[in-house]
Amino acid sequence: MRAGIIALIIAYVLSQFYRAFMAVLTPVLAADLGSSPQDLAAASGYWFLAFAVMQIPVGAALDRVGPRQTAAGLLTIAAIGAAVFAGAQGQGAIKLAMILIGVGCSPILMASYYIFARSFSPAVFGTLAGMVIGIGSFGNLAASVPLRMSVDAFGWRGTMWGLASLTLTTAAAILVLVRDPPRFETTSTGSLFDLLRLPQLWPILLFMASCYAPSAGLRGLWTGPYLADVFDADALQIGRVTFVMGLAMVAGNFAYGPLDRILHTRKWLIFCGNLMMLACLLLLWHKPDQSETRAMILLGGVGFFGASFPMVMAHGRAFLPPHLVGRGVTLINLFGIGAAGMMQFATGRLHASIASPPAEAPYAALFLFYAVLVATGLLIYLFSKDRTD
What we know:
The chain is 80% helix and 0% strand. The protein contains 19 helices and no strands. The protein is mainly alpha-helical. α12 packs antiparallel against α17 (309-317). It has helices at 2-20, 22-33, 37-53, 55-64, 67-86, 91-105, 108-119, 125-136, 138-142, 145-177, 192-196, 201-211, 213-231, 235-263, 267-286, 292-305, 309-317, 325-353, 361-381. The chain starts with a helix and ends in an 8-residue tail after the last helix.
């Protein structure tokens, strides 16, 4: 069991890397392939949407087939996608590669959560979920300065070929090492519609759609163009800021994990944390061009306080019937990842629509957009029912 969890965590490091690496590759893809920020926003959005669309079949596969074959089989598709990216000659290949990588990464985190839900006490689900995301978020760090160094040493194509090989090796390790937990014996079959009929889930689902998109979008895509356009930052500076934001996300995941048991609440822990993320977004909107250091601190704040994903997942998990855990956790994930993907397309269009000077104008609009999204989610989340198992 332990070796299998380690293999899944390594796979999740790769998943986090793939959703965040585009920000650092922005300059080289623009130079080599003529990729615009809108092109890369669309490609990143395809990753999230492919990931999101796969959540429904992944949930059914986890309940019926188990996490071992589901995760190993689909991660192999991610390796193929990385190889397509390495050989890309235009925007179409980049977008296809991101779709394949998104499909391949789609079961990894949920496979871990499925095992936790089947094999451990519900009271520690949030801590274990936060641990996986916290360790996995080192993929965010790898997609910053280390990625920049690898691109300098081996080129972006050589780096992607190496990632394709690593991804394929990890898929093989999952197939060998992961052990499926015992199935839940029940005469009830259940379906996705049974989950959608649970009124306790809806405020959590809608809040998940708002709370993950800002940190995912800013870290995975917009930080690079923002720093380059507003502060004339080079690739090394972008790598440093994305590294800081990634480190803040790691710290945030570990911080949220045990706090529900310490504070005896999930709802208000999540609410107050995301209220702080909202404050950081509003400060970025208010003076987006004041200084690069200020921007780095506030982006780090978005990463830290916006790391509530595993705790929101734990909150929703508490209301799931045992025989629908696989489909339940993937449904919650669908709302988070699907909304993040749609926001990539929306923010790409928003950025393109405000192309006139000053340089910070489109980014101020992006920060305000994300702030309004979070504020709306917080209002909905007020109607949720607290539960700490």
